[in-house]
Amino acid sequence: MNEVKRPRKPLMFYYAIVLLALILFNALVMPFLTNPNVTQVDYSEFMNMTNEKLVSEVMIEDNQILFKGKNNKLYRTGLMDDPELTQRLYASGAKFSSQIVEQMSPILSILISWILPMVLIIGVGNYFSKKLVERAGGGAGSMMFGMGKSNAKVYVKSTSGIKFDDVAGEDEAKEILSEIVDFLENPKKYEAIGAKMPKGALLVGPPGTGKTLLAKAVAGEANVPFFSISGSEFVEMFVGMGAAKVRDLFKQANEKAPCIVFIDEVDAIGGKRDGRIGGNDEREQTLNQLLTEMDGFDGSKGVVILAATNRPESLDPALLRPGRFDRRVPVELPDLKGREEILKVHARKVNMQPNVDFGAVARAAAGASGAELANIVNEAALRAVRDGRKTVTQADLEESVEVIIAGYQKKNRVLSDKEKMVVAYHEIGHALVAAKQSESAPVHKITIIPRTNGALGYTMQVEENEHFLLTREELENKIATLTGGRAAEALVFNQITTGAANDIEQATRLARAMITRYGMSDAFGMVAMEQLTNQYLGGDTTLVCSDETSNRIDEVVRKLIAAQYDKAFGLLKDNAPQLHALAKYLYEHETITGDEFMEILHKTENPPALPVGEA
Ligand code: ADP
Ligand code: MG
Ligand code: ZN
User: Fold this and answer.
1) For residue 110, which phi and psi values (nearest 5 degrees)?
2) What is the third-level CATH fold of 153-330?
């Protein structure tokens, strides 16, 4: 992409240069101006020389005594409180006088030695930065070193830029955005029918789903200038600067219309104005300015504002009303097909073996965002390089899915035999409970090689097809599967370990959601008792019920999980031979695939008939 960046260095940079120049000037140049070859001597030496009549001329200055010897050399010495000096000099026959001080006022000397160079340097710097800005096609009007200037980057159309093709999945978002591109390129078509383009579109979605990428693709597709700035860049140290930047940005945009302005991470300035005392004045001023500017410009002129955020609920309602950001473009986590396409888009850039099954990788990477998928492809390529291969294989991709989920293999962590055995039973516990329930996703892989995220082992389940609705039974089965690890430990070793912490956390979260948000408990029915607050960032919840209800929820959650634990324990007990056989295999091999798992399971369930004649 032909990205023309406005050259802008931080203010500190210039101050540092000015300071350095001044220090150099005062240290190197000044001494040359003031002292030609003058030898510095003691006052006693000076007295000796006058007494011995070796001095021809003396000049008494206000901070030193300069004198010339009969040998024509120049000397200087410091002033002393010496009342007899005049007498002695007269006696020595030297010509002497004191300086007629046309002393510069200290203010003037500061002006000359410090302020003047500073003004000069700033002037020159500003001149050059303006020149560069003009060459970059930006607007005019600058304050000192770009303070209060929008530092929007201007993208111009280029042939090598990011296009909609580079954004996989997200078809709805692309459709909405291509309409905007079309409007900017053929406004007549829309005017003819009397349609007005939305002034702004807000891209909302979790991190890494391609919001910024989409905006760049719009820039690559549209034949118009594209201003891009991040919300945080408006937030300045000085009050009022953010507002000035907004003003400047819109001024530039109006001059360049039709064009697109993209404000990334808009929540940095667009947060709700809560009117709290001591609230963030600067941010509110900036937001107010943004609101004013968005009302102020003429939509038909063709300035379209795009903004992106992953916290839409925190935005000020004024920003979201029609006439401002009146279009909301959801950019969600990709589904199975989307994941496959994103993998393919990124695989275009690496050397892939031709037979790679992207569908399988996409299935294993359930819940991954576009950014994570891009990362998976890159990890796979790195793994191939590490192994000294020229192409990326299916195995590379599958291993890097695990790296993204669980971190790297920790080869040097050595588990004791007992611990390894416990981990093996724990993981098989999960897998066996899952396999013995009808509505559970099949086991894909189990390993007990420790990972850098702290997991000592894990069980990977992969859904055959993606589904978007979960039944109550499926959720309960999930909880049972999560408790299966601990249940196996308890059943086999009659003791429990810390290894189940993460399982417990997940099971509790699921059980709570079933009760407080999905209306899946008989005790409460369809009542919402928790609200999702940060939908796209981890999904925090806040409780919206009385303390008494909250206590009862805790009790119901406890019962729900206990029931599922009992179910899991029972399942494992009934299938103890399989549990032992599988755990033994996992302990010996450290990794077991879904197919191997099923094979051992069936073999143990239907042992081959013993040959006749043997006991
Ligand atoms: P965000 O939504 O947080 O702004 P980005 O647009 O910055 O996410 O995405 C980060 C990276 O993830 C992109 O540079 C791209 O490599 C990859 N990516 C994300 N979504 C997609 C997608 N839909 N298609 C292709 N690549 C994607
Ligand atoms: Mg982004
Ligand atoms: Zn576990």
Assistant:
1) -65, -40
2) Rossmann fold (3.40.50)
